[in-house]
Amino acid sequence: MPARVKKGKGGGTFSATISSPKDVSSVSLRLKTWDSEGASFTETVIDAIAVKDRRPGGPGHGGPGHAG
Q1: Where is this region: Disordered (predicted)?
Q2: Domain of 52?
Q3: Residue 54: which of 27, 16, 24, 15 has the closest Cα?
């Protein structure tokens, strides 16, 4: 289920932790905004955000070809 943020005055921040299911190789973030009239729409999609490879010997685990 998508995260929902209550509409408020001024700026703000939102953070979330994404736990990907097994064998998922990419994650997408989508931002949708509307003006106060609901007329203006903006969508930004960011793909492949820091998905960790949890396999033994994968990146960051000191496997072949990887420092660490």
Answers
A1: 1-22
A2: 25-68
A3: 24
